[in-house]
Amino acid sequence: MSILFQAYPLARGILFSMDPERAHEVTLGTLQRAYDFAPTRALMHSAIADPVTLMGLRLTNPVGLAAGLDKNGAHIDALGNLGFGFVEVGTVTPRPQTGNPKPRLFRIPQAQGLINRFGFNNLGLDAFVANVQRSTWHKTGGVLGLNIGKNADTPIERAVDDYLIGLDAVYPHADYVTVNISSPNTKNLRALQGEHELGELLGQLQQRRLALADRYGRRVPLVIKIAPDLDEAQIDVISDVVTRHGIDGIIATNTTLDRSGVDGLPHASEAGGLSGAPVRAKAVGVIARLRQRVGPGMAIIGAGGTMCGADAVEKIRAGANAVQLYSGLIYRGPALVNECVKAIRAARS
Fold first, then answer.
1. Structure pTM?
2. β-sheet bridge partners, residue 146
3. What is the DSSP letter of 172?
4. Which of 146, 232, 273, 342 is buried most deeply by CB count within 10 Å?
5. What mean pLDDT value characterizes the chain?
6. Under DSSP, is residue 110 helix (H, G, I), strand (E, B) or coil?
7. Which of the following is catalytic: 183, 239, 275, 327?
8. 93 with 151: CB under 8 angstroms?
9. Architecture of the domain spanning 3-348
10. In the chain, what are the domain boundaries?
11. Omega prior to 91 cis, within 30 of 0
């Protein structure tokens, strides 16, 4: 294991003494500088092979980076160098937006949780696509997912327009495109998970994808990202609509509004989505129900509360084909990537 990875517990103490959003920015900046300097880039690289095929895409291993860590796609190569089998960046909206007022990120270390209410803060599609085009990850065989959303000031009745704009812009540059309909931090966004609303959205996206596939000569998989706060009936409806419209995969799940795992802890009452260990059981439950409903053919990517290798294996056994990390990286550092790859590989042998 890289000596830089082993040093993370010390670095975490320093980072956790900072404002969480400032620590996030410092971490990405430091990671980028280390990647840009060839000697430290080599020390950072620590990939383990466990090849899998997902939606027709060949992954070097089934552990990916979840969207949200790199909203503007500015650090794709540096993050990919940490050993991920695939990298997802965004969520990007058609126009730049500042997101919700600060502070908007809160740690709950007693429960290994995070609450965020960022609100899709990003520089917009033009800057995002320019960053993606400058990266080498996709060009050298890395699998890249691009995550699209709607602007906060776009009425929910016009949400489809924003998603179509996003799909048009990112399609030529993506290995797969994720449609984020489950962030709790954009007003009414989760209403798009309803049967009628989801059917309308996916129908139009599928029609646009057919036209884009003809234009670019390749079919890019479409994935939706759903919430953990769904009952079985809602999961069943989503499964049926997604199957009917030929969508390739589902990411389960986004952050939760439920606070039952952090009641009474500092910051637990902050508005926003809760991620990390407290969402683990909910995510696993959604994965298991999805797999029962959609059968073996559809891709399911497990996200939410993967804090150790055993958590990754739990999601695979529940029915996920691959997993994504975010909050676990904050608490455990980049060594978590290889830990999860090794655990999944051992569980399969």
1. 0.96
2. 89, 177
3. G
4. 146
5. 94
6. helix
7. 183
8. yes
9. Alpha-Beta Barrel (3.20)
10. 3-348
11. yes
Three-class SS of residue 7?
Answer: coil
Which tens digits make up the pLDDT trace of 44-88? 777 788 999 999 999 999 999 999 999 999 999 999 999 999 999
| Tens of pLDDT, residues 262-315 | 999 999 999 999 999 999 999 999 999 999 999 999 999 999 999 999 999 999
159-217 pLDDT per residue, tens:
999 999 999 999 999 999 999 998 888 988 898 888 889 999 999 999 999 999 999 99
Distance CA 179, CA 184 (A): 14
Whether the bond into 253 is cis, omega within 30 of 0: yes
Residue 133 to residue 142: CA distance in whole angstroms: 13
The Cβ-side half-sphere exposure at 130, using a 13 Å CA radius, reads 5
**Helical segments of the chain, H only:** 3-6, 8-15, 20-36, 38-44, 76-80, 125-134, 159-170, 195-216, 232-244, 280-294, 309-318, 327-332, 335-348
> Which tokens belong to 207?
């029609």
Local structure of 144: helix, strand or coil:
strand
Other C-beta atoms lying within 10 Å of the C-beta of residue 100? 18
Query: Is residue 183 annotated as a catalytic residue, yes or no?
Result: yes
How far is the C-alpha of 120 from the C-alpha of 96, rounded, in Å?
9
Question: 157: which residues sit within 8 A by CB, 6+ positions away?
Answer: none
